[in-house]
Amino acid sequence: MTSNVSPTDKRRTLREIIAAPELGIFPGVFDGYSVRLVQQKGFQGGLISGAGLANSRLARPDVGIMGLESNLAACRALCPAVNIPLIADGDTGYGNAANVYYATQEFERSGAAGVFFEDQTFPKRCGHMPGKAVIPAAEMAAKIAAAVDARADRELVVIARTDAATSEGVTDAIFRANLYFDAGADLVFPDAVRSRADIERFVAESKGPVCINMGFGLRSRGTTPLLSPAELRACGVSIAIYARLLSSAAVMGMSLALDAMAEQATTGIVTERPDLCVDFDQVEGLVGLEEANLLATRYSDSS
Fold it and tell me: Would you say 43 and 84 are in contact if contact means Cβ atoms under 8 Å apart?
């Protein structure tokens, strides 16, 4: 199954979600299974998680090891696979403002509905890791201006992430957010905000819509508190991303299945475990076997 919705229409949908009174909920995706499940379960969109890609594709932590081309390869595969809008994680833009200009063009060509860049120094770190540092606000504003200028499709959503709340404090993070809005950002994403009060203040004092990164089931290393979607919307948040929900759930699921396999190997007793595994038809249905079979039939040699 490939998307029958154009990238421009997906970008317009993303803009509508940002402007809507309801909270947009975007789980993090990192592979074909996760992106198809997010669409199948009826979510409005997804975030192509840079951490999810680095962890799953490279078996490396999210500390700036994954390069632009690896990131783009995933975006090129995932964006056309669904009809919902996907947001790309552009990390720090892989260089200066000129690099961000070219990176934005490539993320746009991949079919992404939006892309965010962050104001960390390079090599960056996952937003909920210690040891982060940020570049000067004016330097980041230039990166956002470059991303805005680089768009061929004006519907592409440019998102500015700031990691200053942890290292510099929420006042500086708000200052940066508004500088990035002045540079043309469509949405600002303050990561690792430490309290509900800080989220409410950030939204109230920002010049535009705000995205928050939310944990699920586990607090994100003691940083952002766990808030329900209703609570986030009451704070004025436009979009909540659950960047590590599916990747952490996948690790848990695989770990439990392997434990069960190891137990069977030890005991010699084979049992069905439908609580741990979906069946063959569910997997193949998720990834579009029916469409592939229809195409094979249509173009088969009938002579």
Answer: yes
CATH superfamily assigned to domain 7-244: Phosphoenolpyruvate-binding domains (3.20.20.60)
51, 76, 239 from 187: Cα distances, Å: 20, 23, 9
Does residue 225 have a cis peptide bond before it, meaning omega lies within 30 degrees of 0?
Answer: no
Residue at token pair 């504003």: 141
Listed in order, the ranges of the chain carrying CATH 3.20.20.60 are 7-244
Distance CA 293, CA 97 (A): 46
Contact 181, 207 (CB under 8 A): yes
Q: Per the structure block, which two tokens stand in for 229?
A: 């979607």
Q: What is the pLDDT of residues 34-64, one digit of tens each?
A: 999 999 999 999 999 999 999 999 999 989 8
Please classify residue 267 by burial: count the beta carbons closer than 10 Å to its beta carbon, then call 0-12 exposed, 13-18 middle and 19+ buried.
exposed
Instruction: Report pLDDT for 302.
Output: 59
